[in-house]
Amino acid sequence: MKKSEFWSRYKYLVFFILIFSVSGVSIFKYVLTPEKKLPVYSPSMVNSELVSEDIQYKKKYHKISDFEMTNQNNELVTEKNYDNTIYVADFFFTTCPSICPIMTGNMVFLQNELEGEDVMFASFSVTPEIDSVEVLKKYAIEKGVDDSRWNLMTGNKEEIYSLARKSYLVAKENPNAGSHDMIHTENFVLVDPNRRIRGFYDGTDSEGRPFGKSAIEAADLAGQSADANQKVALLAIDSANLNPYLYVVFCQFSVIIIISAVLIRLMSMVLSLQI
């Protein structure tokens, strides 16, 4: 077969194979470069010192529990105030002389960085017997807390302790105190609209501000849709979604191998015609 005859007969096939090969490689590369997704934290993924013993084994389906608190404006605040909302939470107390002022200042930074975003904040006092509504209100004014987005909360100490150890996973037991006392940590917790923990950040590092990631990630999550009703779906990202991708990768890889074999065969035919 002459070169001209070969080209006349197979040119469309060659074009098709080339185009399909390029498309296959592009799709393959896209599949192998998945969109960045925040992890969904469970108790088993967190330092066991910060988690109640009865849930340390839990590997999935962890969510923030229901709660009922009172904020700085003497308003009842429950988990429903944060329904379908991204928020950053921490634990503090107003008389804390060490890490709490730094954490509060950094939370104010996040509040200001996320102005205009549909993101809220929640701070639970670990000394509710001291942090009354009046005390929290004075503290909020002094620190520049935006009442419309940030609740400073007081309530039942046992419930707050349970939230810290069983929901937000951020407090250590205090061996020198009673059964309902704790040592709170510096962690900021990023929570999605499904009540799932999506990130832990150091709320005291003002210089490096690693907690600033929470601002970026919360803004990215909130910015995925202007429609608040769609955020739950947008944030419902599970690692289980990896399985369909693996199937697609396998199929694409198989197709590319077949195409490569065909191209090699065609090239050998062309070379043999030139001899």
List the helices and strands and how they pair.
Blueprint: H1 3-31, E1 68-71, E2 76-78, E3 86-92, H2 99-113, E4 119-125, H3 133-143, E5 150-154, H4 157-167, E6 171-173, E7 182-184, E8 187-191, E9 197-202, H5 212-222, H6 231-235, H7 242-274
Parallel strand pairs: 3-4, 4-5
Antiparallel strand pairs: 1-2, 1-5, 3-8, 6-7, 8-9
Name of the CATH homologous superfamily of the largest domain: Glutaredoxin
> Which class of the largest domain in CATH terms?
Alpha Beta
CATH topology of the largest domain: Glutaredoxin
User: From N to C, what is the helix and strand string?
Assistant: HEEEHEHEHEEEEHHH
Share in β-strands: 15-25%
Helix segment tally: 7
Give a quick account of the main beta sheet: strands, pairing sense, barrel closure.
Answer: 7 strands, mixed
* Biggest sheet, spatial arrangement of strands: 2-1-5-4-3-8-9
Tell me how many strands there are: 9
Total separate domains: 2
Give the low-confidence spans.
224-247
Mean pLDDT: 77
Distance from N terminus to C terminus (CA atoms, Å) equals 12 Å
Structural class: alpha+beta
Rg from Cα: 28 Å
CATH architecture of the largest domain: 3-Layer(aba) Sandwich
How much helix is in the residues?
40-55%
Task: Using the alpha-carbon principal axes, give the shape.
Answer: elongated
